[in-house]
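Hi R.,

Here are the chain sequences for the assembly we discussed:
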Amino acid sequence: MLELRDVQTYYGNIQALKGISLKVNQGEVVTLIGSNGAGKTTTLRTIQGLNRPRYGTILFEGKALETLPTDTIVRLGISQSPEGRLVFPRMTVRENLEMGAFSRSDKEGIAQDMERALNLFPRLRERLAQKAGTLSGGEQQMLAIGRALMARPRLLLLDEPSMGLAPMLVEQIFQTVIEINEQGTTVLLVEQNARMALAVADRGYVLQTGRIVLEDTGPNLLRSETVRKAYLGEH
Amino acid sequence: MSPAVRTGISAGLLAVVVVLLFGNLSGVVLGLLAGAGAAILLDSRVEWPNRNAAIVGGATAGAVAGLLILVGQFIHDLFLMPLAGQPVATAPGSTLQAGLIAVVLAALAGAAVGAIVTQAERPRQLGLLGLLVAFVILFPFLDQQIQLGWTPTVISVLIYVVLALGLNIVVGYAGLLDLGYAAFFAIGAYTTGLLLSPQIGINWDHPLSFWLVIWIAAAVAGLFGLILGAPTLPLRGDYLAIVTLGFGEIVPIVFRNLTRVEIKEPFTGTCLIGCDKAINLTGGEAGINPISHPWLPLVGQFRTGQDLPWYFLIVAIIALTIFLISRLRNSRLGRAWTAMREDELAASSMGIDIVRTKLLAFAMGATFSGFGGAFFASYISAIFPGVFDFSVSVIILCMVILGGLGNITGVILGGLIIMMSDRLFLPQLATLVKNILNTSVLPTIADPAMKDFVATSVDPSQFRLLLFGLTLVIMMLVRPEGLIPNVRRRAEFHEAEAGAEATVATEAKAPAK
Ligand SMILES: Nc1ncnc2c1ncn2[C@@H]1O[C@H](COP(=O)(O)OP(=O)(O)OP(=O)(O)O)[C@@H](O)[C@H]1O
Ligand SMILES: [Mg+2]
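And here is the predicted structure of the full complex:
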C-alpha cells in the first residue's frame, strides 16, 4: 500500500532521514520505533508532504507522493494525528472533528464518520461542545485520533499517541488502535513505548539517527537482543 | 436603583458628552441612539417575565437617558454658550423643547426595543435590524432637518469602517498582524484616480463609469494583496508586522515619486513609453485631481456638497461588504483561517494549504480596502500621497482592536466610536475650548507670557494621538477582547485560567509514566 524507497529529508543542511526504505501492506499495523531525534516524526511528515524529501520516492498504491500537496495526499487517504496532540484549543470538540473532514465535502459520509469516531471514543460524545483546550491530555489524544479518522483515511499515521498518558489510558488507546485497524484502516504507528507498540503491531521497524537498523515482525522484534537492550530497558 | 435606571444612566452619560459639545437639536439624534442603546443593554442584563415588562423597562431606561440629555442641553445652552462668548442661540423655552423631544424620543426608542427583544429569535433579529435600517436611512434627512451638518463627516467615517472590516479579515480571522494596511487603501484610491481623471490621458468628456472602476480598483488592490503578501509568507508575529509596516511606508513613497515615468527597452535602450516627455503618472506631492463622480439614472450626477447620494452609496458598500464577509467567514476558507490561526501545524496536517490560505486572507482584506479607496477618491475628488501614511494604518487597526477582533458588529462599532471621536467630537471640543478660552479665560490673565502659554498649550486636537494611545492601553488592560468580541477570541484572551485547569486535570489523570 505504502512504500518508501531511500527517502532522505533535510532540515536546511541537517540530514534528518538518511535513506529510509519501508513498506506498509494493506490491513497491517506497522510500527516505527526509535529513540528521541531518530527521525520518526520527520518520516511521518515527509509521507504527508509536510516536509519534502530531497532524494527518494514515496509510493502510495503506486502513486508518487513526493510532489503532491498535502491536501491531495489527505484526499488520497492518508491522514495523521500529529505529535503532541495538536488539537485546535479554542474550537469545540465538534468543530475539531469537523476540521478533520476539511478535505471532504460529502455531508452524509462526514456525519457517519462523526458517529463512528464518537462510538470509538464515547468520552468525546459527552464533551462535544467543550473547548478542546480544556480537555484532559488523554481526551485531547482521543480527539486528535478521532479528528484524523474524520478524513476517512485508508492509511492512518499516528505519532506517539501514548505520550504523557497514564498506563490505563495507554492501554485503552492501543485497544482503540486495534479496533480501528479491525474496521479496515491500515495504521502506521510511531511510538517510544516500544513494548506496547510491538505487542499490537504486525511488523515493526527500528529507526536510529535517520536510518532503519532493524525490521521484523512484532513478536520477533520484542524478542530481539538489540530491541530489548536499547528500547525496553532490559539487560 | 433598578437596572432600568442604571442602564439609562450609563447610556445617557455617553450621549450627554456629545450633547454638551453640540447642543441645539443634537439631542434628537442622541436621544434615539441612547434610548435604543439603553434598552439593548438592559435586555442583556434582565430576564423579562413578559413583553409589557420589557416595554416598560425599555421606556424607563430610555427616558432616564433622555433626561440626562435634557440636563446636558441646559448646561450647553445656558452655561457653556455664554462662556464661549456665543449668544444663547435659542430662547430658554426652546432649550426645554429640544430636551423634551430628546426624552420622548429616547423613551419611545427604548420601548420599541423592549417590544422587539421579547419576540422569538427570528422576529427579534429582523426587528432590531429593521430599527437599525430605519435609523440609517432616516439619519441624513434628520441631520438636514435639525441642521447638525454631520453627514459629510459620517461619510468619511464610514469609509474607514469599510477599511476596518477588510483589515478584520487579515488580523481578526487569519490572525496576521498587518501594520501597513493603508497601502491597499492607497492602491485602490490611485487606481480609481488614474482611471477617472485626465491624468493618464483618459478623455475627460467621456470618463469611464465609476461603477466599473470601483470593481477594477478592488481587483487591483486584491492583486497587490497577493503580491505584497507573498514575501511575508514565511514570517510570523513580530517579523510579519515589521515587513507589512515597511510596505505601508513604501507604497505612498512610490506614488509620490512616479512623476517622471519613462520605459526603455532594456537591451538597446530605445525608448518605448514616455519618450518625448516623461509621463507624470501620479502627480507627485500634488496628487491627482479632479476625479470624476458616479452617475446613476434617476439620481443623476453625484456632486460635491450634495451628500445624500454619497451617503447612501457608502452605506450600500458597507452592506455589501458585511454580506460578503459574513459569507466568507462561514465558508471553507473562513474555517481554514480559523484553523490556521489556532495552530498552523495541525491545520496543515488537515490538508489546509497554509500558503494559499494566508495569501487569500491578504488578498480578500485588500479587496475591500479597494472598495473604500475607490469611493474615497471619487468622493474627495482628489488624492495625495500624504493621505495614506502610517497613522491611517494604525487608526484602522485601533478600530478593529477596540471593537473586537473577528466580530463584524464590534468592528463597526469600534470604527464608529474612534472615527466619530476623531473627526467630529474632538474638533468640536477644540473649537469649544478655544472659544471659552478666548472669551472667558484669557481676558482674566494679565501676564502676556502666561496668556500666550495658555492660548497655545490648551488645544484638545493636539492630544488626538495621545487619546488613541490611552484608549488602546486601557482597552488592552481592561478588556483585551474588545467591546463585542468574537466568542472564540474571548476564549483566547482568557485561556490562562482555562489552561491552568486543563493542566491540573491532565496531571491528575496521568500521575507518572
Ligand atoms: N524543524 C526542524 N528544524 C531543524 N531540525 C529539525 C526540525 N525538526 C526536527 N529536526 C531534527 O531532525 C531530527 C529528527 O527529528 P524528529 O522530530 O523526526 O525525531 P523523532 O524521532 O520524532 O523524535 P521524538 O521521539 O523525540 O519525537 C532531530 O535531530 C531533530 O533535531
Ligand atoms: Mg517525534
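The interface with chain B takes residues 48, 50, 69-75, 79-80, 82, 86-91, 98-100, 102-103, 131, 133-138, 147, 151, 164-166, 169 of chain A (CB under 8 Å). The pocket of magnesium ion (ligand 2) is lined by residues A 40-41, 83 (CB under 6 Å).

Let me know if anything looks off.

Best,
T.
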